[in-house]
Amino acid sequence: KQEVTQIPAALSVPEGENLVLNCSFTDSAIYNLQWFRQDPGKGLTSLLLIQSSQREQTSGRLNASLDKSSGRSTLYIAASQPGDSATYLCAVRRMDSSYKLIFGSGTRLLVRP
Amino acid sequence: ETGVTQSPTHLIKTRGQQVTLRCSSQSGHNTVSWYQQALGQGPQFIFQYYREEENGRGNFPPRFSGLQFPNYSSELNVNALELDDSALYLCASSFEGGRRILSYEQYFGPGTRLTVT
């Protein structure tokens, strides 16, 4: 059974700091991994998708890495801003006939001005 | 290109009642997945519809049912509502299958907040 864990559960940093969010998964047989952002009470916004054959993806100040063999992914946020405050969720898609995503519980990020 | 939309935005129901939530897929997508997100938790997979047929189901009882229509929009129906059904219900659409290898990225709607009293 695939389980996804995100550490830390919450993080508070001053503006301008670089930070790393962690995601781990128990079964390395994944098709891809997605990182999402969720603002309070809102839906999910896809940030980055990494295919199982890829090592990393970058979008602006965000960089996501994937180490499938160790079951780990990190989301690196450079020069954090108060507008980055949100919950960040990672989700894996298993390599089977189902197209479902399995989510972690998220990391709540607060960037202090 | 229109994104994923959901209706209604908020809903309050009484225990024992029935509810229908709606989702319109992003243009060109043929797959809809439904997720339940309790407060402070990650979304949990309810079920998925691919070309109008159920293509996988999570650990939810049969009182959670769904439909996908020829235009790939979808409904989630919940019968005999319980207090624990209070959650944010998220719909995601994607394009699956076909001859080209695509990213299979899922796009989420804004969600429906259901409160059961």
Task: Walk me through what this model shows.
The complex is a heterodimer of chains A (113) and B (117). By secondary structure, chain A is an all-beta fold. In chain A, 0% of the residues lie in helices and 59% in strands. Chain A has strands at residues 4-7, 10-14, 19-25, 30-38, 44-51, 56-59, 62-67, 72-77, 86-94, 101-103, 107-112. In chain A, the strands form 2 sheets. In chain A, strands 2, 4, 5, 9, 10 and 11 form a 6-stranded mixed sheet that branches. Chain A has a 5-stranded antiparallel sheet with strand order 1-3-8-7-6, with no helix packed on it. Chain A is globular. Chain B is mainly β and 117 residues long. Helices cover 0% and strands 49% of the residues of chain B. Chain B has strands at 5-7, 10-13, 19-24, 31-37, 44-50, 53-57, 64-68, 74-78, 87-94, 107-108, 112-116. In chain B, strands 2, 4, 5, 6, 9, 10 and 11 form a 7-stranded mixed sheet that branches. In chain B, strand 7 (64-68) and strand 8 (74-78) form a beta hairpin. The radius of gyration of chain B is 14 Å and the shape is globular. The N and C termini of chain B lie far apart (38 Å). The model of chain B has no long low-confidence stretch (mean pLDDT 90). The interface between A and B is medium-sized, with 26 and 30 residues.
